[in-house]
């Protein structure tokens, strides 16, 4: 076993040179002697001299460590000197907190930075590179300055003009990193706003935080001294990847010509994920077509690649009616042919990234929008061929409504409108209720429906405000709304229970027992095993009318009995509660629970009983007093829910658990819902915090992966093509996937790989990777 | 000892009381909170609403019965407002869409069809119907009171400003609020040389025999002109109709005041060259039609032959003369100044507490909607009454509180039956005040008064904004009978030509300025979002794909909520897997009111692939609170990222 670990360690060490230091960071800690020795080596050093560490400095050192990895690629070592142990004159000053970082080259201070300026990795890299590239990157502010740069560059090199509003931001870093790689090929110019931008056609200077322009000065003839070079703007965010792509595009020929099918044209653009536009030319119009293509290419430069295809070639088989086509980036994307009448159309085609792709998506959307996406509406719609068996229910009208309601003992009315899918879905269940009523030989219930689309007066008079509405009418009594589930079983139970008087007045202990065990109302007990019994010491008890009122309200929901007698006291003692109390029986197999009652308002009592009915698995913690504050209630509910939920999850130890009705779970949900509302605010903060942490994590990962990627390639060798392919591959992978989960990880790979390309370019151009160092 | 004195005192008091009562009744002043001037359809309609809300009101009428205008007009005794009894529907509200004569009341059978079964009833049936209306509803109408002078009372009475009306006997009536429903009585005249020889529509003989072999020139091209022409078509030798403007056919313009097809037999004989004709000079000159015709200069001048009769059928104007300067509303800008100018809530401009009702209030929607006709103004009168209730009795505009999940079916209910917005298209609209999880539904609010919504309705707007439901015709006029006149594809609903519902969504109330600068032809200013429901041939807007679903999506867009319905199983799943399940589940399922599918529907839903079943879960990653197309629209982030590469 031990030898195995040894092998692994050995392997790891051979893989990574940092292994020897035992620390992944490339931040070196110097001793004084070490420092002076290194200063003589002629390399570049970025060194922080520090003594004490407060949180701010701590953060800075963290960032410094990260930047060490990055800066190493540019031949700059990052180090820190601990001034408490070592003393280096001039740098280790007497201050407790030292806020200076120095950039050395060959023993001389190139520049010193305040730690506030170089506050994070981006700022460190940006500022250090900016200093290193001081000779290569020109800083301009006025138009005159830019013009002088342009004049000097004309005919020799193209200019890359970068604008960042503030130094030290990621955009600045991206620009500097590119400048480091391409610094000799192009003349880099940096500005931080001002008149130069207006020259570039920027209207609102203050709103533009960063921008990049490519000034085509190489091709411009020197004779036209005063004319500015034509320029192309980068229309995307300033990132290393975008700048790289952009510069590649600028290098690509303005218009390419080909004599093959558009699908076979292979250009750098497709690797760079840029759409291609094809124009088809005929032999006799070639000259004109070229001019058109040139004009177009200038307008679309940096966004679209332009290819002129010679139609006369035998390889080209394009329908004659088309004069243009385009192909979007991405493997296997199709060539789309079209007819263009003027240049503006083409430009509109690609304007503002609203590539034609989106328009087509729109078309698709219309088609998909035709499909019903509401499951209830869709299922009802699919059922439209089936006609409902309306004979089973009574269809009421304005003329028959009142007479029907007055005549039957019980009239259940469903108010519906035909265009409401929920009404029509429920209608099916409702009709099924009539069948089950028939089976149960129930004859005193009239099951009726009323179409509010036709009998609008009745519905207005009955104050029907939502569809579907079910109400139970009894002669000489106010109608009772049905508020349960819209399904056959629940409605059926409601009707059956509604036919019972509520509360059932019980006179003897025997009756009570048979009521609780479900023997008294066997048929009802089969569908609703849970019964509630109110216990009072006498009928004169002040609570009796309140209880009766509550029982009335619970009619249809559950069976409620009332036993008011001296003998109730015996029961109370047996269940160790004080009177008045309720007994909740869950049928012959379930147990019976007792709760003391604190009688107040009927509606409060109703809620109380409803809660008692729910609580199948745990005993009610305590009976709340009337008018208890909401906060306290929430707290106790929380406890209850926790208990209930636990029981549900552990469940299975009782057969009864298996039969738990959906309703109970629903009420649980309702309670959880209200709890959620309580916690919402809390959660909000928590989420924000988590998000911030995650962001930070992502940032650091990004840096880490970038630097690793660079390292890897440096080690792996000079296979440039291989790396490029690799980069492309991963980018496409990410591009084609729409899964949001993967979005966080894959882009880093892309970016890292792209950085590889940059580094390789640098290597390829100047065999010596670090120009400054060689100076 | 004391009692005789007390008795005496009581007697004295009683006597004084008697005297003062006597004094009052014989004094020439009567006071009412509301005076309604004229017992025509508009006056009676207002009378009904005032009596229903138990207000102190009186309807003053100079003639001996209601609707006396209809005892004379139309001269040829056929009403052209339709009285369609059989609509195939029993919905009372819906049937009112096709009953243009009845007034609104709570009695389901108090309709004109009780008096006449004709589609175009005889004119006499209308006053008969109105008498019945007065009698059955017990409206307080005082006949034989001919108000000759109306002035504003500047007296500092505790009730504030009011109006004093003086009748033919010099009796004064003081009113807190004056409701002018006098209609239009004054025939519109035109002055030119020889205009004294012109006969008026109001006095021409209606016996066709009187026109035997006569050449007749009729001035005007409205319904009365054509009605006259039609009646004498079989007797007169030549009938020419003259007016400066071309004939406008109601079925083309959708304006019922334009020439109705029931009157246009003459067009037939004109186009078939049977000696009758139309002439529109375009020159609107009052000198052309008389004796000095320019026949000398142009031997092809169409009016070169002399006429035996010239009849003027130019319509009527509002009688401004009874108003004292202090109480006279200005002439309207439109309708050639024939009507009084009124605000969007029909109060006279510059005459507070004086409202104009009925045909005289037509200046608000002249030549565009039905406000000048019984089937239109019965609804504007109701709107005015609601304004009165708030202003003088602090009863805010009646509203219905609805849950947001019910809004869609409620809107469909209104568009499928409501008669007010249907008749008064583009003028009256339903307002829905959004309030988060519920909303307030207000019916038939005058749209032009939207900037003053809060002060007129007594309802406040919340930050959630409001929706306005309007019925309107398409703006691009097309050939009413040509091909492509109707759209049937719901995606092209915005191009609908025929009357169709349109929903406007505003996040805040439009201002006066917005109202003034609204696009030409629009009833309302540009909203934040607008939704046209595709026109429907049967005017039944209940198709799940063409009507319901696009409407639901529009509401979802405005409310930023998923409004779809779900079965209990889906709700259960959502409740366990989401912090906030869809609204339908929250308002239904989570309150133990979910929808249980039966086997058949379950099957259908599964086939449609909409249920979030175990293995074929549609897209568990996406947020169920938003349908897919919403995330697409809103997720600019993801699309932007995609385009970066």
UniProtKB/TrEMBL annotation, chain B:
Signal sequence: where?
A: 1-18
Report any one BP term from Gene Ontology: ERAD pathway
Keywords from the UniProt entry: Oxidoreductase, Signal
Q: Which SUPFAM superfamilies match?
A: FAD/NAD(P)-binding domain
The protein here is known as FAD-dependent oxidoreductase domain containing 2
Say yes or no: keyword Acyltransferase present. no
What organism is this sequence from? Oncorhynchus mykiss (Rainbow trout)
Q: Does Signal show up as a keyword for this record?
A: yes
- Gene3D superfamilies in the record, alphabetically? FAD/NAD(P)-binding domain (3.50.50.60)
GO cellular component terms listed in the entry, alphabetical order: endoplasmic reticulum lumen
Pfam families the UniProt entry points to: Pyr_redox_3
**InterPro entries, per the entry:** Auxin_biosynth/cation_transpt, FAD/NAD-bd_sf
What are the recorded GO MF terms, alphabetically? flavin adenine dinucleotide binding; monooxygenase activity
């Amino acid at each position: 076993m031990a030898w195995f670990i040894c092998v692994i360690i050995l392997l790891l060490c051979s893989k990574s040179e940092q292994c020897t230091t035992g620390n992944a960071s490339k931040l070196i800690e110097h001793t004084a002697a070490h420092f002076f020795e290194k200063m003589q080596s002629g390399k570049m050093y970025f060194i922080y001299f520090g003594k004490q560490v407060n949180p701010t400095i701590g953060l800075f050192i963290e960032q410094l460590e990260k930047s060490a990895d990055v800066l190493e690629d540019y031949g700059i070592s990052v180090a820190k000197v601990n001034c408490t142990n070592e003393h280096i004159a001039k740098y280790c000053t007497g201050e407790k907190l030292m806020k200076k970082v120095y950039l050395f080259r060959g023993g001389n201070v190139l520049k010193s930075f305040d730690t506030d300026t170089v506050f994070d990795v981006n700022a460190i890299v940006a500022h250090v590179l900016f200093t290193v590239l001081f000779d290569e990157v020109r800083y301009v502010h006025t138009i005159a300055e830019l013009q002088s740069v342009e004049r000097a560059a004309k005919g020799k090199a193209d200019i890359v003009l970068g604008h960042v509003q503030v130094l030290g931001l990621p955009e600045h870093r991206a620009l500097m990193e590119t400048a480091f790689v391409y610094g000799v090929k192009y003349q880099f110019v940096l500005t931080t706003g001002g008149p130069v931008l207006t020259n570039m056609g920027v209207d609102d200077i203050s709103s533009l935080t960063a921008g990049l322009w490519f000034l085509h000065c190489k091709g411009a003839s020197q004779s036209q001294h005063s004319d500015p070079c034509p320029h192309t703007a980068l229309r995307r965010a300033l990132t290393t990847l975008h700048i790289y792509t952009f510069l590649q595009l600028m290098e690509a020929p303005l218009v390419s010509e080909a004599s093959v099918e558009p699908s076979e044209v292979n250009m750098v653009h497709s690797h760079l994920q840029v759409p291609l536009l094809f124009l088809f030319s005929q032999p006799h119009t070639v000259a004109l077509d070229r001019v058109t293509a040139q004009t177009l290419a200038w307008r679309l430069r940096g966004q679209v690649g332009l290819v002129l295809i010679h139609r006369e070639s035998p390889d080209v088989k394009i329908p004659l009616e088309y004069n243009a086509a385009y192909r979007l980036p991405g493997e296997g994307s199709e060539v789309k042919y079209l007819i263009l009448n003027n240049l503006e159309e083409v430009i509109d085609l690609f304007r503002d990234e609203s590539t034609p792709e989106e328009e087509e998506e729109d078309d698709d959307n219309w088609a998909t929008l035709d499909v019903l996406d509401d499951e209830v509406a869709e299922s009802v719609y699919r059922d439209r061929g089936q006609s409902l068996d309306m004979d089973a229910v009574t269809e009421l009208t304005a003329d028959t409504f009142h007479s029907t309601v007055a005549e039957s003992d019980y009239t259940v009315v469903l108010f519906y409108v035909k265009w409401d899918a929920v009404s029509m879905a429920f209608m099916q269940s409702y009709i099924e209720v009539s069948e089950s009523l028939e089976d149960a030989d129930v004859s005193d219930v009239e099951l009726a429906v009323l179409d509010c689309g036709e009998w609008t007066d009745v519905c207005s008079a009955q104050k029907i405000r939502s569809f579907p509405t079910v109400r139970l009418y009894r002669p000489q009594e106010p109608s009772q709304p049905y508020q349960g589930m819209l399904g056959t079983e629940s409605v059926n139970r409601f009707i059956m229970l509604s036919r019972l008087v509520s509360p059932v007045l019980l006179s003897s202990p025997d009756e009570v027992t048979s009521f609780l065990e479900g023997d008294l109302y066997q048929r009802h007990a089969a569908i609703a095993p849970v019964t509630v019994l109110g216990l009072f010491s006498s009928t004169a008890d002040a609570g009796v009318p309140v209880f009766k009122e509550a029982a009335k309200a619970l009619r249809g929901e559950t069976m409620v009995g009332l036993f008011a007698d001296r003998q109730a006291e015996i029961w109370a003692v047996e269940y160790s509660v004080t009177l008045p109390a309720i007994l909740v029986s869950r049928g012959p197999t379930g147990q019976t629970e007792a709760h003391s009652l604190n009688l107040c308002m009927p509606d409060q009592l109703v809620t109380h009983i409803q809660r008692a009915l729910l609580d199948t698995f745990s005993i009610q913690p305590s009976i709340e007093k009337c008018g208890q504050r909401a906060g306290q209630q929430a707290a106790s509910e929380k406890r209850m829910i926790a208990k209930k939920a636990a029981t549900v999850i552990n469940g299975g130890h009782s057969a009864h658990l298996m039969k738990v009705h959906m309703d109970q779970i629903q009420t649980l949900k309702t309670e959880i819902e209200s709890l959620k509302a309580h916690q919402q605010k809390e959660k909000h903060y928590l989420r924000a915090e988590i998000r911030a942490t995650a962001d930070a994590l992502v940032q650091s990962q990004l840096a880490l992966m970038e630097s690793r990627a660079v390292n890897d390639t440096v080690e792996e060798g000079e296979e440039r093509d291989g790396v490029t392919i690799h980069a492309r591959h991963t980018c496409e992978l990410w591009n084609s996937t729409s899964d949001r989960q993967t979005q966080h990880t894959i882009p880093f790979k892309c970016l890292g790989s792209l950085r590889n390309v940059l580094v390789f370019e640098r290597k390829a151009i100047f065999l010596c990777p670090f120009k400054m160092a060689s100076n | 000892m004391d009692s005789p004195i007390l008795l005496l005192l009581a007697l004295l008091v009683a006597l004084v009381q008697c005297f003062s009562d006597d004094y009052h009744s014989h004094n020439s002043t009567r006071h009412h909170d509301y005076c309604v001037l004229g017992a025509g359809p508009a006056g009676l309609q207002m009378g009904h609403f005032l009596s229903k809300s138990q207000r102190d009101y009186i309807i003053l009428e100079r003639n001996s019965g209601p609707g006396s205008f209809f005892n004379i007009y139309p001269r040829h005794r056929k009403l052209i407002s339709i009285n369609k009894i059989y609509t195939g529907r029993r919905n009372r509200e819906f049937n009112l869409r096709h009953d243009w004569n009845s007034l609104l009341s709570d009695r389901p059978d108090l309709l004109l069809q009780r008096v006449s079964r004709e589609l175009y009833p005889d004119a006499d049936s209308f006053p008969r119907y109105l008498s019945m209306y007065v009698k059955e509803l017990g409206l307080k109408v005082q006949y034989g009171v001919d108000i000759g002078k109306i002035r504003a009372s500047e007296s500092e009475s505790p009730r504030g400003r009011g109006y004093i009306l003086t009748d033919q006997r010099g009796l004064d009536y003081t009113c807190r609020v004056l409701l002018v429903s006098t209609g239009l009585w004054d025939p519109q005249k035109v002055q030119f040389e020889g205009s004294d020889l012109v006969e008026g529509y109001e006095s021409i003989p209606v016996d066709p025999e009187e026109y035997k072999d006569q050449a007749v020139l009729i001035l005007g091209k409205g319904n009365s002109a054509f009605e006259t022409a039609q009646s004498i078509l079989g007797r007169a030798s030549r009938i020419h109709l003259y007016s400066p403007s071309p004939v406008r056919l109601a079925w083309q313009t959708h304006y019922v005041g334009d020439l109705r097809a029931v009157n246009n037999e003459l067009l037939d004989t004109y186009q078939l060259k049977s000696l009758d004709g139309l002439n529109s000079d375009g020159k609107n000159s009052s000198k052309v039609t008389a004796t000095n015709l320019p026949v000398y200069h142009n031997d092809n001048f169409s009016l070169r032959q002399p006429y035996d009769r010239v009849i003027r059928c130019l319509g009527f104007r509002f009688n401004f003369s009874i108003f004292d300067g202090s109480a006279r509303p200005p002439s309207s800008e439109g309708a050639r100044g024939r009507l009084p100018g009124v605000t969007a809530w029909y109060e006279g401009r510059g005459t507070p507490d004086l409202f104009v009702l009925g045909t005289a209030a037509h200046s608000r929607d002249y030549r565009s909607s039905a406000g000048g006709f019984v089937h239109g103004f019965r609804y504007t009168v109701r709107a005015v009454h609601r304004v009165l209730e708030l202003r003088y009795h602090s009863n805010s505009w009646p509203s219905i509180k609805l849950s947001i999940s019910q809004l869609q079916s409620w809107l469909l209910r209104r568009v499928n039956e409501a008669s007010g917005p249907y008749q008064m298209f583009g003028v009256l609209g339903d307002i829905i005040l959004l309030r988060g999880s519920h909303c307030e539904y207000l019916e038939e609010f005058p749209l032009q008064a939207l900037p003053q919504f809060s002060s007129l309705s007594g309802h406040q707007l919340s930050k959630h904004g409001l929706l306005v439901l309007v019925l309107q015709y398409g703006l691009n006029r097309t050939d009413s009978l040509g091909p492509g006149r109707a759209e049937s594809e719901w995606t092209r609903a915005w191009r609908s030509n025929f009357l169709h519902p349109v929903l406007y969504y505003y996040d805040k109330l439009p201002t006066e300025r917005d109202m003034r600068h609204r696009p030409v032809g629009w009833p309302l200013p540009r909203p934040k979002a607008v939704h046209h429901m595709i026109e429907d041939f049967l005017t039944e807007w209940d198709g799940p794909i063409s009507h319901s679903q696009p409407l639901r999506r529009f509401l979802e867009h405005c409310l930023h909520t998923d409004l779809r319905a779900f079965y209990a199983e889906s709700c259960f799943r959502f409740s366990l897997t989401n912090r906030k399940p869809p609204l339908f589940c929250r308002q239904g399922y989570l309150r133990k009111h979910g929808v249980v599918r039966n086997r058949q529907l379950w099957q259908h839903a599964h086939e449609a692939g909409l249920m979030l079943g175990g293995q074929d879960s549609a897209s568990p990653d996406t947020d169920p609170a938003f349908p897919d197309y919403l995330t697409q629209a809103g997720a600019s982030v993801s699309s932007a990222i995609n385009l970066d590469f």
